[in-house]
């Protein structure tokens, strides 16, 4: 790969975002399947009571639940990896073209989805520096405020 090739970096980041989108859809499908495979578990009685023991899920239900939980964990891990890879590509792009506001927006989105709130905040702030009058700037300001408020207790606590 050519680390200075902006087009290649954009394409690679887009491929990671596309894969993450497909993984997110699959993750949602597995979550729905899990709900159908283990109906009523949200309201299950404690298994320490006789009634709870009598109504406890059987071994097949437990195995299905365990299998789908494993798949959910695997998909979530893959999803985080794809968003993180996209974020790294957008960081590289942002370093190559420090004046491209759209890259900052894409970086913020990828960072947010990768669970990197500090990087998302920085990218949103940089976007607002570069494009304060952009039509989506008010939405970005709202999101930035929400993220800063959400991360403030974690930073002070």
Describe this structure in words.
78% of the residues lie in helices and 0% in strands. It has helices spanning 6-37, 50-54, 59-96, 101-113, 117-130, 137-156. The protein folds into 2 domains: 1-84; 98-157, no CATH class. It is mostly helical and 157 residues long. Helix 3 packs antiparallel against helix 4, helix 4 (101-113) packs antiparallel against helix 5 and helix 5 (117-130) runs antiparallel to helix 6 (137-156).
Count of alpha/pi helices = 6
Number of strands: 0
Instruction: Tell me the Rg in angstroms.
Output: 21 Å
Strand count, sense and barrel status of the largest sheet are: none
- Low-confidence runs: none
SS-based class: mainly alpha
What's the number of domains? 2
Specify the oligomeric state: single chain
Mean pLDDT: 87
General form: elongated
Helix content: over 70%
Question: Could you give the order of the helices and strands?
Answer: HHHHHH
Give me a quick take on this structure.
With 157 residues, the protein is mainly alpha-helical.
